[in-house]
Amino acid sequence: xxxxxxxxxxxAWMLAARPKxxxxxxxxxxxxxxxxxxxxxxxxxxxxxxxxxxxxxxxGVNLANDYFDFKKGVDTAGRKGPLRVTQAGLISPEDIRLxxxxxxxxxxxVGIYLIAVGGWPILAVGTASILAALAYSGGPWPIxxxxxxxxxxxxxxxxxxxxxxxxxxALALTxxxxxxAVPPGLLITAILVVNNLRDIETDSKVDKRTLAVRLGPRGTxxxxxxxxxxxxxxxxxxxxxxxxDGWITLPFFTLPxxxxxxxxxxxxxxxxxxxxxxxxxTARYTLVFCLFFAIGIVL
Length: 299
Prior knowledge:
The chain is mainly α. It has one domain. About 75% of the residues lie in helices and about 0% in strands. Helix 2 packs parallel to helix 7 and helix 7 (about 150-170) packs antiparallel against helix 8.
């Protein structure tokens, strides 16, 4: 049980927003914008709006998970992950639900501008993103509890985020933009994999059947390795196919960052604090990879 003595109301809301997860929102927008720059389609206001929308959706998902996991009894005193403010009694369920609604409302307001720029495709993607965010932990058939969370994250926080960011600037979608969306999607999914690997034991007890619970620790570690390897392989494919020059391989300089992360996941996956550090480390690694990727795309 984590000590919550002395936590102020403001600090509690910061904990609920989980700022260490926000690189997962910044990374795909950086890549999508870099592709727009590459194609001569950079538009600063739509790019900033896409970033604001991605950040708001990430915070909204975090608040929704905090609320719905508490209401469904998923979060218990034995939780190993970062503090959940509803379960800890720092913020009432009603206030978290109100905060979640407000954040999604703000995301929708940003979306109105992006719809005005990009038309019905942005309306469709934005609506699906908010509905999926609510269905991830909530509703009668939570996505996360049925082993589909990884696919959800890859599709919405990877492909949709990169392609949507590009589309609101270029007003079109290219094969290169679709290909460039895959590495961020894979690595953002890897962040979720760390979270779910850490929680295998506690999730199993409450019948939350994440993909990690289904695969077990060894299988989940293999998934993590495959996601990271896949991101680098896409870079090589883009280079070798002639779609980009050698600058696209710039993210290979991030390979050393994966070594301590893999070591932790292999040897310390039952250690909550160590895995929380690996979770934050994977988020940082994803952001650095995607920033190098973005630079490589522009160059």
